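step: validate -> pass
step: tokenize input -> pass
step: predict -> running
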Amino acid sequence: MENKVLGIHHITAIAGNAKRNYEFYTTVLGLRMVKKTVNFDDPGTYHFYFGDEIGSPGTILTFFPWEGITTGKTGPGMATEIGYAVPEGSFDFWKRRFEQYSVKVTGSGERFGEQYLSFEDPDGLKLALIVPKQADSRKPWETQDVKANVATKGFHSITLTLRNVKATAAVLTDIFDYTLQAQDGNRYRYTTNAIENASVVDLIEATADVNSVGGSGTIHHVAFRVKDEAILMHFRDKVVKKGFNITQKIDRNYFFSLYFREPGGVLFELATDNPGFSVDEPVNELGKNLKLPAQYEADRAAIEKVLPALV
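step: predict -> pass
step: emit ->
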């Protein structure tokens, strides 16, 4: 693990309604609400974390559900699709479930020898279920309706759409130690051998002259995983030496972070495994209670009054 980027840590997206977002990811997809907190810069807005039982890196999908925000538009300079690993033989279950809950299925097929089923969440966020070539051994979170034999295991991949892939690819290879595994038309697949899962980044070179617009249904940033703060700062030095502007270390309560924007326009984060989501509540209580950053605890009553009800 020394001085390695260990694949994807988490992915953060934007939603337009907190209750609808919560219900979709916990009920329809069967993820666990790992942490219910607020946006560090906007405490009147939730910050949701969905994942497996303990919020393992590589399973964590987070949302800023800004009530009533306008719908975004995906395009170059954005992360544009989130891939989840699922067990072989699970697609029939998911197709029935998506039909039951009126989930928009947008396509299916094969990429790089792996079957996929693509769909959208209620805000139009693009997601895909993917059966990996090598079976994913991670233990999933189970619900009454979504059992382990069909449940998502965590991330398989993230897709970035770019006007030109060259400079972004150089960040992946020269800083993060990814390698080009395969190419299919305008899609380039990069992987790391530092970790078995949540290790794939697909780069799509866009040809259409369209502009991306942030808003609900779009991805805010992609966080890559490192073991601890020492390795985090090692990578800060690498990023600086490549000439990029990068933040100082930021304490996000559940991990430590650095942020920089890669040349194609996507906001990248580096995030640590430590201290984890059980730092302020036991594992069996994760996601049940509103946890506030220390600076907002004195304003809890006022914050709770403005946050929308989830049930």
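step: describe -> DSSP finds five helices and 16 strands in the chain.
step: cleanup -> pass
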